[in-house]
Specification:
Layout (H helix, E strand, L loop, with lengths): L1 H21 L6 H4 L10 H7 L2 H34 L2 H16 L2 H11 L6 H8 L14 H28 L4 H9 L4 H12 L1 H16 L3 H8 L4 H4 L2 H11 L3 H32 L1
Membrane topology: Multi-pass membrane protein
Pfam family, one: BPD_transp_1
Protein name: Sugar ABC transporter permease
Amino acid sequence: MAPGVIAVLVAVGYPMVKQFIMSFQKFGLAQQFGKPAPWVGLDNYKSILTDPYFWQVFGRSLAFCFVTAGLTMILSVLLAVVLLRAGGFGRGFLNNSLIIVWGMPLLASLTVWQWLIDPNYGPVNYVLTKLGAHADGYNWLSGSPWTFFTVASLVIIWASIPLATISIYAAMAQVPSEVIEAAGMDSATNAQITRYVLLPSAGTIVALMTVLEVIWDLRVFTQIYVLQQSGGVTTETNLLGTYVFQMGIAQGNYGVASALATVILLLTLLLSSGYIRMLFRQGDAA
């Protein structure tokens, strides 16, 4: 295990330790050019935790994370069941579609989404206008924070579903056909088989993917940042990932940004602690 452990310590451990140290320093642009960084103790954390805007971003990020991750998992489970029940052609078509979505470069997909919701030429506004919604010229990214986050959620869910669906489908496919046939002979409906046979068999994978989705959606950056650059109001649409970037790269306040990143790390560990305990329990049982 030594090579793998060393690689993780070098690639992840050192930046994390450096970030933790910087969170107790006043580290700005001057320190980028070699000036010593003075120690400020917990001042960076105090400035974050006493800032009302931080708590707005914090609450907004949690709400966005849980809604997006929840919808992703619900749709992924439904699609996994469809994959399991579908015939050869339908399963192959859906599986290939998921792989194409999964393999599509993120920035390329964001370009397509921006074209779809373009205020003047996008097909979304065109269709809604034809249906009588008076959406001609409406800007989904700057119209309101609600429409901005609706688009952001759709983009993230669309990109996250393939991995979760394929993983859950693979776990469900491991259930012996004899067990499903026996449940059918006992007059169990398809819904009951899914609920009492298939889902419990994939419970560990569903829990794992749920935790990973929460972690990914809590720290989401690229999608939010690109959509902000396309018209979103930054102060009203910042999440924790873009807030860290704004404090560090945009404003040059790396000490406060490091403290903020440490807070996000602690929150991530707190949210994932339940799954970690479950892994240890399963290891002890094995």
